[in-house]
Fold this sequence. Notes:
- By secondary structure, the protein is mostly helical.
- It folds into two domains: 67-255, Growth Hormone, Chain: A (Up-down Bundle); 267-475, Up-down Bundle (Growth Hormone, Chain: A).
- It is 69% helix and 0% strand.
- This is MFS transporter.
Amino acid sequence: xxxxxxxxxxxxxxxxxxxxxxxxxxxxxxxxxxxxxxxxxxxxxxxxxxxxxxxxxxxxxxxxxxxxxxxxxxxxxxxxxxxxxxxxxxxxxxxxxxxxxxxxxxxxxxxxxxxxxxxxxxxxxxxxxxxxxxxxxxxxxxxxxxxxxxxxxxxxxxxxxxxxxxxxxxxxxxxxxxxxxxxxxxxxxxxxxxxxxxxxxxxxxxxxxxxxxxxxxxxxxxxxxxxxxxxxxxxxxxxxxxxxxxxxxxxxxxxxxxxxxxxxxxxxxxxxxxxxxxxxxxxxxxxxxxxxxxxxxxxxxxxxxxxxxxxxxxxxxxxxxxxxxxxxxxxxxxxxxxxxxxxxxxxxxxxxxxxxxxxxxxxxxxxxxxxxxxxxxxxxxxxxxxxxxxxxxxxxxxxxxxxxxxxxxxxxxxxxxxxxxxxxxxxxxxxxxxxxxxxxxxxxxxxxxxxxxxxxxxxxxxxxxxxxxxxxxxxxxxxxx
Length: 481
């Protein structure tokens, strides 16, 4: 046994070899007699001697294996605070969108103005993400996140005032939407400080996306339940509380860190626009960003046209919920599988192949499928978004740290904008063509555009660009700070 092997040998029962006996010590005349010499104990082969008076070493108990995958991300205390804050604020936003739509319709009786509240949740992303992106790098991340939450809570509080006119409600909705990309981009960049730039960051981003998809399913349901027991303004009150809870979690659950880049002396607008030029001027970063944007622009077509398609195939209105949630269910399932079952290397390998074929399931709409086949096609299209997990790592590797906050903000703003644009274009096309043809056409056109982007991403892969391009890119990174 291990403890027996580390114990000192019992010399009283161990025979001593002749060469192990200590040599005699000569007696020098006039010197005191030497002490009796004790023979050195002999240890069995392979057993180290233990000094006298020292307790024998006991082997350490086996240490438990470190958590891996998503468990490793949740082991980081700061990420748990970010995750909880994201959950609170996201559920609050979804509930407020539904409640505000009902409130505007109650006040005006106008379906157009009611629908406009949803559109106003997407369109200002481009303005906020472009004009205010410099905030994400210019100021400490924790301060930016907390201030954004407090500003959103203040906007929602003004919505609760009965005297606020409809125009004021819509303007406040625009302001909250303009703040959102700054908040999201800053949080994405802050995750690289909390989780590092490797696999933990990729899995952390994956978890936040999963929450976002789940919130669309849970939030609208929760909002519907709240509106059965509360007035629209009462339901909006919940949003103010969730923003305040998010601010508290971020303030007291994360560490203060310095800003990525100091005040360069220019105005915030100038700094934001300069950052956007640097980011979009880099061929590699631009190609990766477009790969984030283009597939979602086309994949939203069946969601935007779910109601008219349900009517066209003659299914009951209850089936509309299946058409709207199947893509989110496919996305969540695929992301969980890729994040937990595949290694970082394999996640990187599937990025381009999955992106290339992710929109092909929509081509099934060409045969005007019934509900079961349509739901299956939408779930597969949602699963195609799993390529983003590996793409996250490529994007972080390609963007210099001093531009990371602005790059993440611009990425978020563009993503929301192109999805709104995709919905609008799908609706416009459905005015002239049958719905099923529009969805199938989106799948075909989107696949062609994505294949072109895949080729561009391959061409800009590290080691594939020419030496001149590599030097130019390095120069831009050095001067961008």
